[in-house]
Amino acid sequence: MARALSLVAASALHDLTFGTTHADSRLCVLNACTSPSGASLTTTSPFAADALEHGISSNLALYSLSILNAASIFGRIIPNWLADTYGPLTILVPQCFISGVLIFLFLPMCKTAGGLVAFTILFGFSSGACASRIPSLRNVGQPD
């Protein structure tokens, strides 16, 4: 007779590796939702407003969110391709670290047009990598 499957495997929650990975992925999602781009929650971009305050042209400031989203496309594809060879955590941990460091570099980098473009490309790539790798972590350390 077939065994009935439940939606939540309570025995998996007692495993330290699985629980830690689950908690860390929740923190990464929280990081993405409170990032300087604000792209995941709102349609306005705080770094575009900051760029306007520093005298960067309004066209570049408003297109900075589009640049971030375009870089995020590559950030979602390339690290996933590399994760097939090197493993999901090996790719996710450095990308989340880079994303966190870039959040602290947000204000110093976005004072010039070149800094704004560099920030949006780098942050878009790394945050896209973090966002796309989290769903695959659901299977890391999960007992079969």
Describe the structure.
This protein has 6 helices and no strands. The protein has helices at 16-33, 46-53, 58-86, 88-104, 106-109, 113-133. It has a domain at 43-137. The protein starts with 15 loop residues before the first helix and ends in an 11-residue tail after the last helix. The protein is elongated. The chain is mainly α. α2 (46-53) crosses α3 (58-86), α3 packs antiparallel against α4 and α4 runs antiparallel to α6.
Main structural class: mainly alpha
Radius of gyration: 18 Å
Poorly predicted regions are 37-44
For the residues shown, what is the average pLDDT? 76
Count of helical regions: 6
Estimated helix fraction: 55-70%
Alpha-carbon distance between the termini?
Answer: 19 Å
Strand content: under 5%
**Which series of helices and strands comes N to C?**
HHHHHH
Largest sheet: none
User: What sort of overall outline do the alpha carbons produce when their principal axes are compared?
Assistant: elongated
The total beta strand count reads 0
